[in-house]
Amino acid sequence: MADVAKAAGVSHQTVSRVLNEHPNVRAETRDRVLKAIDRLGYRRNMVARALVTRHSRTLGVVSFDTILYGPASTVYGIEQAARDAGYFVSIVSLRTIDRAGVRDAIDYLTEQGVDGIVVVAPQRSAASALEDLPRGIPVVAVEGGHGGAAPVICVDQAEGARLATAHLLDFGHETVWHVRGPQDWLEAEGRIEGWEAALTAAGREIPDVLSGDWSPRSGYEAGKRLAAMADEVSAVFVANDQMALGVLRAFTEEGVRVPDQISVVGFDDIPESEFFSPPLTTVRQDFGAVGRHSIDVLLKQIEAEGRGETERFVVPPDLVVRASSAPRNS
Amino acid sequence: MADVAKAAGVSHQTVSRVLNEHPNVRAETRDRVLKAIDRLGYRRNMVARALVTRHSRTLGVVSFDTILYGPASTVYGIEQAARDAGYFVSIVSLRTIDRAGVRDAIDYLTEQGVDGIVVVAPQRSAASALEDLPRGIPVVAVEGGHGGAAPVICVDQAEGARLATAHLLDFGHETVWHVRGPQDWLEAEGRIEGWEAALTAAGREIPDVLSGDWSPRSGYEAGKRLAAMADEVSAVFVANDQMALGVLRAFTEEGVRVPDQISVVGFDDIPESEFFSPPLTTVRQDFGAVGRHSIDVLLKQIEAEGRGETERFVVPPDLVVRASSAPRNS
DNA sequence: ACCACGACTGTGAGCGTTAACAACCTGTCG
DNA sequence: CGACAGGTTGTTAACGCTCACAGTCGTGGT
């Protein structure tokens, strides 16, 4: 910077002013500085800037299993929204998720000097890490349950499940079976909740829940079990599309026709769902909206210096009806 | 830090030494400092550290479309490997990929003070941005063609395609059709190359190529066209699994039986492939290995301060045989 | 002619850390 | 007993930037 100042015949402070678009710089001076910057190939050192301003214009993201469609989409949405707002994103992708891991990641990012942190905490154990947050750094949670001290942005899982279940009941199915996601996941809980609520509201029996772990294989295994009771089962709500694919595969192998014998509904609307055999009825989540809102809320927290309200933002899901669900055949 | 020094009755430099695990600190002194740090809840300011050491222990990643399975897995592999090596990762996820975008991202990250950059450049236009790199910052390319000035880490796409095609020829198919990926993508080119090479090596005719854009829908459309010529076609190599799903769907709709009438092979081995109807024969890429190697090479470049060799690391792919491919029927 | 004011520019300090060097202490060896 | 090595600690000066403040200059009003 000193070199530029010398080359342009001004003080370092004037160079700084040009860089920061301060209004009180004569146009001619600005040009001279800009030319010098260009000629010398000068790049300002953001680290030094961050040291004095105490703002790095970088946000941290703590996530888990960023290869799964849901988390990957969420992180992508967050990154885009952050960049639009002029912020960088540093990512920590946890291998195993637990209280300690999330806390370490938050500490780690804090130490790096990020201005705020988005924690994608889809599991109870991760969400619990948000209960007593280190003060001094704004944090928002995505899919983080009640979120403890942090604001929460989430998709209304229960509502999505309710839509899916009600859709099947509307088709005249006596009841709807459910293949759930893994124990610790809040999304799995929310979906069960909505499913039960819809059944209860219609005065239907609540069948035993089958367990899965989000993987197609676990759906396949659940599908085998359901196929074995094909005479009692006419509709299944599966907690995500990957497991739903496994269910469809098991049904195909066992000669159970979808939707003639059994209707299947998934959750997520992954790009593949439309081309399953048959195309899958499912619940779409707007991950872009989740990312945008989480950044909005986080920036608001940063501006308010932690004194912002711990609001809660719920994004509504949509039902996408395709060929895997149909009126009951009897 | 001054506070800690005062509390422990030492100089700030001794605190710094404790923090950096300098050997020449008396055990008793270290304990005293550590206790003071703990008591005051002190956290060292990495920004100030980065300013003076000129190392941020942060690496930049420039990527594109991080929701697709391939890029997402690559970025995940990079992130894990970087963290194992004690580095942070800042991500820039490009919306549209072109020379200017990649250059901007590299500049952006350089300005932020990253120690090195991994560019995931699966497209020709992105790879071309690597031809004249800004000096002064180590860069490695993943899937970046010849890579220009930067070392390249990639999966041997042509070899994967050769494996897939040879597998189908071994099954007695007269020739193998191909649904390619989008124009600008190097991976699409590599896969075509391998496919042609395998056909040429076997002295077979090279059929017209069908075009897709990686999406299931484009595969579906290609599948419809192939189904219309089902009597000439007995084997198809599709450039990725998502498009292969679309092809399978189109075949199902048109009553083309897989693999009885037509064998289908994909590329990527996404988690869903095993549960397609029928389960998909495909080519698996080891994204974890790509991530690890790219970080290895990048760190080597950083140590060598840019004077490292521009090596090229090729990761071999594996053929995974499932039910969608079978010996020719007739 | 004087003053006030705004536009523009320069000066010095300081952000929190590490590097380089100096200083001190202890023990060992000739 | 003195010198010297080596472990341990403290002092000072950067790193590259912004902030607060202090000019300087020209303009317009009284």
TrEMBL record, chains A, B:
Transmembrane segments: none
Alphabetized UniProt keyword annotations: DNA-binding, Transcription, Transcription regulation
Domain of life: Bacteria
Entries under SMART domains matching the protein: HTH_LACI
Residues covered by the HTH lacI-type domain: 1-53
PROSITE patterns in the cross-refs: HTH_LACI_1 (PS00356), HTH_LACI_2 (PS50932)
GO MF term set: DNA-binding transcription factor activity; transcription cis-regulatory region binding
Keyword Phosphoprotein in record: no
Entry protein name: LacI family transcriptional regulator
Lineage, opening ranks: Bacteria, Bacillati, Actinomycetota, Actinomycetes, Streptosporangiales
